[in-house]
Design brief:
Distance between the termini: 32 Å
Number of helices: 1
Largest sheet: 6 strands, antiparallel
Number of strands: 6
CATH class: Alpha Beta
CATH superfamily: Hotdog Thioesterase
Radius of gyration: 16 Å
CATH architecture: Roll
Strand content: 25-35%
Number of domains: 1
Order of helices and strands: EEHEEEE
Strand order of the largest sheet: 1-2-4-5-6-3
CATH topology: Thiol Ester Dehydrase, Chain A
Length: 147
Amino acid sequence: MRAGCGAKGALMSDLAPVDDGTCFACGSDNPIGLHLRFEPDGDDGVHARVSIPMQFQGWRGILHGGIVMTLLDEAMAHAALRAGASGMTASVNVRFRKPAPVDAPLELRGRITERRRHVLTVESTLCDAEGTLLCEASGKFVDKGLS
């Protein structure tokens, strides 16, 4: 038996995302968002240089883990979007390796590792300015538009 909230609703694969500019991670119209901007990286990836302010820290000087996960998820989603997908994250696995600092330059990357019908397998990394791996993620992205 699966645990749940008891309400019946739409499946993830049935939802149609709408970009209205207010995404917390990349929305230009979100006054409290991260305002991430991604650029192409190779044939199947994206990258962004970021510096996340202290207001998003957990412990002193360390970026909150939920924000780190948001960065990684957004990099994977933008890699999928670059491939022409229109959907959303279905699952994510995250491995925290070292604390990510606040107010410091960081390099965020995402790329597609596999395409299958309506599911993309994606991965992302977060590194410091010296290239040290801080965190990595892998996940699945559901898209109704892929064939």
